Amino acid sequence: MIFKAFFLALPVAMLTACGSEERESAGDQDPSPTATQAPVKTQAVAADSAPVAFATCRSCHSVEPGKHGIGPSLFGIVGTRAGDIPGFNFSPALRNSGVTWDRQSLDTWLQGPMKMVPGTKMVIGVSDPKKRQEVIDYLETLK
């Protein structure tokens, strides 16, 4: 029971820690009207448009190219071969799975990563079909 409570609380705790640096540094900005900053289009725009269902994914994955966390960056993941993202240490099981990430394989993966590829490191799935489709739709925009 304690393990189950810890396992359920872990993603929430990780999400709580995400973004705290941005809030802390917000007070350091120059509020004067003469300080002008040109808007810069960054990957943060993609992160802002993420569906609510992606919050669980965000606790381990980044959407910035090459920025890996507990899991690999998901930027540009659709159309790639599983285990081929440079700079991340994938499990041998996933690296040798031969899976190419498309809508169908992502849907199967998100239903149960360890069922699809026994021996993979990812353990969290998305059981709700509508939420899975929202996550997959979002992943397709990350190019």
Topology, pairings included?
Elements: H1 2-17, H2 20-25, H3 44-48, H4 55-58, H5 92-95, H6 103-111, H7 113-116, H8 129-141
What this model shows, in words?
With 143 residues, this protein is mostly helical. It has helices at residues 2-17, 20-25, 44-48, 55-58, 92-95, 103-111, 113-116, 129-141. It is built from eight helices and no strands.
Features:
single chain; 143 residues; mainly alpha; 8 helices; 0% strand; globular; disordered N terminus
Would you summarize the structure shown here?
With 143 residues, the chain is an all-alpha fold. It is built from 8 helices and no strands. The protein is globular, with a radius of gyration of 17 Å.
The share of residues in helices is 40-55%
Query: Multimeric state of these chains?
Result: single chain
Treating each run of at least 4 consecutive H or I residues as one helix, how many helices?
Answer: 8
The helix-strand sequence is HHHHHHHH
Residue stretches low in confidence (pLDDT < 50, at least 5 long) are 1-45
**Mean model confidence by pLDDT:** 79
Structural classification: mainly alpha
Query: Would you count the extended β strands for me?
Result: 0
First-residue to last-residue Cα separation: 41 Å
* Spatial shape: globular
Main β-sheet description: none
Beta-strand percent range: under 5%
Rg is 17 Å
